[in-house]
Amino acid sequence: MKFARKDLLGLEDMSREEIESILDTADSFVEISERPIKKVPVLRGLTVVNLFFEPSTRTRISFELAEKRLSADTVNVAASSSSAVKGETLKDTARNIEAMSIDMLVVRHSAPGAARYLAGVLDCPVLNAGDGAHEHPTQALLDLFTVRKKRGKIDGLKVAIVGDILHSRVARSNIWGFSKMGAEIALCGPPTLIPPGIESTGAHVHYNIEEVIPWADVIMLLRIQQERLEESYFPTIREYSQLFGLDGEKMKKAKADVTIMHPGPLNRGVEITPEVADGPYSVILEQVKYGLAVRMAALYLLSGGQFESEVTHQERTADRSDTGSRSNL
Ligand code: NCD
């Protein structure tokens, strides 16, 4: 299947087939990071700019490493060091960067819709690395990929997402992603942190974590997005962690083969205790590991790469200088 999109902005308008094509492509990229020399010439000669207006550790490093392992030239721009602090608009910043003949832009911004806006302004592909509380498509894709690897399937699984759903772009992208892939979704948190009307996505809502723990095959914990809280949504962090934090005691009610996930950064002792985060059911570091392969796949497909399930390792890694065309890879 050809991946026909110019940009990767969110999972809401993506089909199951498109999601599967990214996950299948990512499958063939995992192995590259396990080699002694972790580099293939897939994006050689292309320039990717990572424009980050919000703090990030995992996502920024993951995108940069994905680009480097595909041999792209990369430039990182942080908002604090960009001309945004001198009053330049987002559009001007992006158009000036594009004027230097870049091939792809990865953007993280606090405004929902920022990536879609830039995608309309720029000719080059735009990848959304998180736009406010709206979407974080590559995070959800790596979560789907991790579950598929761990459980062998996504269809029919029961997935509980627990925490600050209201401010979470990870929750939103995962609701779209997991439901399109055939999972059943339960959302759980204090009533103040559940977006009104979210049931219209098909997810069911719970205010008591004890109800979802025995039900779930996968439990995804989310951080309280302190930086997006403009008022008080619950009495104290201590009370929140007692009611909604996943600890060893609550884990006793979980299924024997439960999978525990968290997109990071963890607030240890708040939404998850160290014994659960570092315990045998946790796939938190696998999520990070597979994030790299998923971002390599996204970059590859948006650069014009053609998805073919029979693409062999040799074909992909072959020197393409004689072909001059990325779609032949
Ligand atoms: C998330 C984010 O930035 O949206 N982190 C991530 O990208 N891995 C979640 C969070 O900040 O809590």
Architecture overview:
The chain has 329 residues and is an alpha/beta fold. It folds into 2 domains: 16-135 and 287-319, Rossmann fold, CATH 3.40.50; 137-283, Rossmann fold (3-Layer(aba) Sandwich), CATH 3.40.50.1370. The protein has 12 helices and 9 strands. The protein has helices at residues 16-29, 58-69, 90-98, 114-121, 137-151, 169-180, 209-212, 237-244, 248-251, 274-277, 284-302, 313-317; strands spanning 47-52, 73-78, 104-109, 126-131, 158-162, 184-188, 204-206, 218-221, 259-261. Strands 7-6-5-8-9 form a 5-stranded parallel beta sheet. Helix 6 links the parallel strand 5 (158-162) and strand 6 (184-188). Helix 5 crosses helix 6 and helix 5 crosses helix 11. The two termini are 14 Å apart. Mean pLDDT is 92; it is low at 306-329. The chain binds N-carbamoyl-L-aspartate. N-carbamoyl-L-aspartate (NCD) binds next to helix 2 and helix 6.
Question: Mind telling me which CATH architecture of the largest domain this is?
Answer: 3-Layer(aba) Sandwich
What is the CATH first-level class name of the largest domain? Alpha Beta
What is the C-alpha radius of gyration, as a whole number of Å? Answer: 20 Å
Helical content class: 25-40%
Number of helices: 12
Count every beta strand, where a strand is a DSSP E run of 2 or more residues. Answer: 9
Low-confidence stretches: 306-329
Helix/strand class = alpha/beta
Number of domains: 2
